[in-house]
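Researcher: Before we compare anything, I want clean individual predictions. No alignment, no superposition, just each chain on its own. First chain goes here; please echo the sequence and then give the structure tokens.
Model: Echoing the first chain and its structure:
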Amino acid sequence: TTELFLYNREKGRIWGCNDEYISAPRLDDIQCAYSSLMAYIKALGEISDDYDKVNVCSVFNNEEVGSTTMQGADSTFLSDVLERISIAYGLDREKYMMAIASSYMVSADNAHAVHPNHTDKADLTNRPYMNKGIVIKYNANQKYTTDAVSASIFKTICDSVDVPYQTFTNRSDILGGSTLGNISNAHVSLNTIDIGLAQLAMHSTYETAGAKDVTYMIDAIKAFYNTSIEQVEDGQYIVNNME
């Protein structure tokens, strides 16, 4: 038995009058995976000694063919890893559940930019563009996990490092996809925001995105890893940068 995979052999390109665009296969979602990992690495050497959290960068496999594999988002992989971390720290089951309840997750998966040839496909009031910052994604059907609380926390983090952000919502009469955020949340209940980087031709063999948005993403996620998010008794959150 053999398996046949068809793929685009065209190399990635940086192009535009000011090298402002990136075109390559599989930008969705290697672009966010790369940015998140680079931010994680950069944050490692800058976290304050007072920072008492555990940062995790989780990159799942098999998203586009289904997340129900043993290493997919719709598996116990994330919850297993988080529980093993808590065991290594000597926490019992109750302390582990308390740590989960007080945690915050950023689900990063690219977003649809307004296409110049198909502007009617975008919502009239939520129109993200490439190189205009991180896209915060909303969906009334909860296919995106963003709510008022998670959005306000992430906006505060972006504002702290001068990273611009914009919003995306599907047209109400056009169904959109899902992300790994709400899938993994079915196994680990975390306060979560869905974000992405604006791109064209999503899921085509050769996609296009903004070069500046990669830097925006790294800066914002690095700030996230350097931020202490605490929920106080009245339900409000305190967001403190620990650099």
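Researcher: Okay. Second chain, same rules.
Model: Second chain and its structure:
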Amino acid sequence: ATEYYTKANQGFRDKLAARSDVYANASVIEVDPAAPVFGEPGSADVVLTFRNVHNWVGAGSEAAMFKGFFDVLAPGGVLGVVEHRAAPGKTLEEVKESGYLPEDYVIGLATAAGFVLEEKSEINANPADTKDHPNGVWTLPPSLNMEGIAEADQAKYQAIGESDRMTLKFVKPAAQ
């Protein structure tokens, strides 16, 4: 796993460097997922995460990541979360290997860390996603993992498009 992250982080750094006109003010912070520190406490106004929570669940670091987000945000700060949404009624154990997560589980992670759910949006919803694909969410674009899928069936996964995703806005309560 360390080699994977090293390669991915370098690829990200290369992307930023290739477009310094756009990303000149971006900085990369590598963290220990077991005890992440994203900056000085209360130093951020917004934290956004896109399609990452399932990775943290797989690594067992999801609670620590949400605590790290809470710690770095100033009171009133916003946490935005976009994640692959499991079918209603599915438990974490039923779907955790699929890349999809129950929406109530993700909300629970954030509220356990101290956040308040302020708003949900369906902007990233995809009702065509049946969430029962042979290679989990990675069967769909952009990954298109077609291992073990007959060539004749591959087009149907491309036609579905990207996964159905929850889009959640949390707020760190103002200091009391």
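Researcher: What stands out in the second chain?
Model: The mean pLDDT is 94. Additionally, The radius of gyration is 17 Å.
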